[in-house]
Amino acid sequence: MIEIAWSQFTPGAALAGGLLIGLAAALFLLLNGRIAGISGILGGLLTPTRNDIVWRIAFLAGLIGAPVAWQLASSLPPIEVNAGYPVLVVAGLLVGIGTRYASGCTSGHGVCGLSRLSLRSLVATLSFMALGFVTVFVIRHLMGA
Amino acid sequence: MKYSFASMLAGLIFGLGLIVSGMANPEKVLGFLDIAGLWDPSLAFVMAGAIIVGLIAFAVARKRTLSFLGFNMKLPTNNHVEKRVVIGSMMFGVGWGLAGFCPGPALVALGAGEMKAVVFVASMVAGMLLFEFFERLELFARKAGEA
Fold first, then answer.
1. Is the reported ipTM for this assembly greater than 0.90?
2. Domain ranges of chain A
3. pTM for the complete prediction?
C-alpha cells in the first residue's frame, strides 16, 4: 500500500548523517554531561542564568556555523521551503510553544530520549510523528496543496 | 572554556550531520511525513543511525557521575509521561508537518542564509517566549490560589 519514492530515498547518506548526529549527541553527553536537545538549548537562553549563557551560544554557533563551514569545502545541498510566510509563522509558533511545553523536540526526545530508552520520550516521539503524518496528510491529500 | 568548546564542537558536528543526512531540507522531511504519497523513508535511517551511537553513549554515561571532562552528569530524572509532554509534542508535530522544519534543521537553514528559515526561527523563538510567559502566568495563578 505504501509506495516508496525510490528516486528520493537516500539510505546511505541518511545513515551516515544519522551517525554524525549520534556522534554529536555522544560527545556532548560524555564530555559535558548533557542532553543535546536543540529546543532546550535555545529555549534556555530566553531565561538565562549566569553560567549557562556562553555554552548555549557556543552550541548554537556551531550548529548555525555548520552550513558556513560546509561551504568552505563544497556547495550546500538544496534547501527547499515550499511553505509560504504565513504558514511558516504559524508553524514556528507551534514548534516553539510545543517543544518547550513537551520539554523536547526531535533531538532531545527523538534521538537522545530514545537512546536512553525513556518511555516519556517514546510517547513524545510517537505524538509528534503521528501529528506530523496527520498534518501532511490533511494538507497534501485532503486540501490538495 | 573547555565546556563551551565541547559545546561548539557538538553543535558543529550535529549541524554537519543534518546536512549530510538531507534533513536540513524541509522538502525531504515532508517526503518522510507523507506516507500516503510517494514515501521517502530516509528520516527513519537518520534516526536509526543516531540512536545506534546514542545507545552506546548512554550506556557508558549511565555508569558515570562525572563526564570525561570532569563535569557533573546532568541526565533527565523526570520519567513521568505527563499530559503536557503529549499535548506539547502534538502541537510540535502540527508545526513540523506544516513547514517541514524542526528546531535543529531550521537553525542550520538559517545559517545557510535561507530567508524563510529566518522567519520560521523568529516565530519559533516568539513561541518559546510565549511559553515562558504562560508558565509564569500559571505559576502566579497557582501562588495566588494558595494565598
1. yes
2. 11-142
3. 0.96
